[in-house]
Amino acid sequence: MVLLVEDKAVVVPGEILADDLGFIPGQGTYRLNHKILASRLGLVHIDGKVVKTIPLAGRYLPKRNDVVIGRVIDILVSGWRIDINSPYTAVLSSKETPEFIEKNEDLTRYFDLDDYVVAKITNVTSQNLVDLTVRDQGLRKIKGGRIISVNTHKVPRIIGKKGSMVTMIKQATDCRIIVGQNGWIWVDGEPEKENIAVQAIRKIENESHLSGLTERIKEFLEKETGKKLTIEDKGDYNGLQ
């Protein structure tokens, strides 16, 4: 079978990846005669006979039960419209807050324009209407710290297996960190430690396709902070730890 690219190679739309009917086109690819071509800019991923591409860029597509970080962009009659770094905005109803909010009450007392919130997606309709809640534990308005934006497709690597990567960054920097599934991340700590945490996150984002990533991040954090680190298994990570 003729494969024309290596696994994890960066390819552009229209680039020929394989010239053989023995390979199967996966996500981000298409077949033209005997050939498989890339349909987007991305990294090649070869899984047996399936050839696919992982996008290098793209906005977040909302999914039910995802924990996201959002920004208030409008005050509605009975809630707030939230930017969740997606082609589709979301709505947080006043009924989906821990407090009882009376009709016609001033909603800016709870969430004002440009406030950031940690919320969970409760529903995504076929028309891409997105509903949020902040009633679960850990969901709230964000105060202090900074918000950074990362490629949404790199979020799993930033979190790490069962939260191991983000836990290591917290351990090294003593920062509070919340990773939204929508690619917005909150980092809060001493300014110098915040900078180290952000550098580590950027390093993961830029090098996520390379092998040995966890060890490189560990070495980077140990060098920058002077701490000896262990890679912890924290159980299933929900984004709020």
Task: Please explain how this structure is put together.
This protein is α+β, with helices and mostly antiparallel strands. The protein folds into three domains: 10-55, RNA polymerase II/Efflux pump adaptor protein, barrel-sandwich hybrid domain (OB fold (Dihydrolipoamide Acetyltransferase, E2P)); 67-141, Nucleic acid-binding proteins (OB fold (Dihydrolipoamide Acetyltransferase, E2P), Beta Barrel); 146-225, K Homology domain, type 1 (Ribosomal Protein S8, Chain: A, domain 1). Helices cover 19% and strands 31% of the residues. It has four helices and 16 strands. It has helices at 155-159, 164-173, 191-207, 213-225, and strands at residues 10-11, 16-19, 24-25, 29-32, 35-38, 42-47, 50-55, 67-76, 79-83, 90-93, 116-124, 130-133, 140-141, 146-149, 176-179, 184-188. The chain has a five-stranded mixed β-barrel. Strand 11 and strand 12 form a beta hairpin. Helix 2 packs antiparallel against helix 3, helix 2 (164-173) packs parallel to helix 4 and helix 3 packs antiparallel against helix 4. The protein is flat and about 65 Å long.
